């Protein structure tokens, strides 16, 4: 995986006077383009790398630069270990274990002997998503196409074949990003909406997309555009409001009512939250949320109009 490779390249730079891009490409079984991107990522992370052209060229660390153990305290090493264990709970792959061993070696201590971090980062997917996570991780590593049926937010199902590039989590939800052959472009897929996933035998060469391309594609999707909403809650749900919006501005009003200025990752997410409170909340803004709530409640009223 990329994080493991970046750390390995950095350690090679620390232990050798010069490394060659072609040698790194063969060693890690990736393209030269990938190695160039890795070097740029390491450099952007603050490790000063100098490149030398020509047949005897390659990459070196800037003279005098060294990573010392003393740059990080044992507590900081413990926090890194906690973060990596959180990744392992999500991926469940042996690469994370190897990376844990390398970080521990740099600290000079076993992982279980480092000071315990106050943070417990668990990125485990839902049980129903774990088989998809494992299959997709293998397809990404082996650069093999995947096919699946995808269910969009309107309930429409389409057959997709994609070149999987990576997995990421946002707002506690796991997503796959990759190149969709049906749409001929980079797409983001929610794991819980991927049905009948199959890893194919056909391979692919990874396209030269950067992380910035993926971020732009993700943020440009209409269902991921953040919206700000003003909500007024009745007194009987005050405790739930504090639990759910504890980090949002909550204003106490007369009579036990609460006003919340809340940010939502999408209009659909805001709508689901408002509807879950029933008549114990009033959406004040934005107008599109108020209209969606009104439409949903009118549809529900018509649905139950003939029942007692």
UniProtKB/TrEMBL annotation:
Pfam family, one: WYL
Keywords: Transcription, Transcription regulation
The UniProt record lists the keyword DNA-binding: no
Name this protein carries in UniProt: YafY family transcriptional regulator
GO molecular function terms listed in the Swiss-Prot or TrEMBL record: DNA-binding transcription factor activity
InterPro entries per the UniProt record, alphabetical: CBASS_pafABC_assoc_protein (IPR051534), DeoR_HTH (IPR001034), HTH_11 (IPR013196), PafC-like (IPR028349), WCX_dom (IPR057727), WH-like_DNA-bd_sf (IPR036388), WH_DNA-bd_sf (IPR036390), WYL_dom (IPR026881)
PROSITE patterns: HTH_DEOR_2 (PS51000), WYL (PS52050)
SUPFAM superfamilies: Winged helix' DNA-binding domain
Provenance organism: Paenibacillus albicereus
Ranges where the HTH deoR-type domain occurs: 2-57
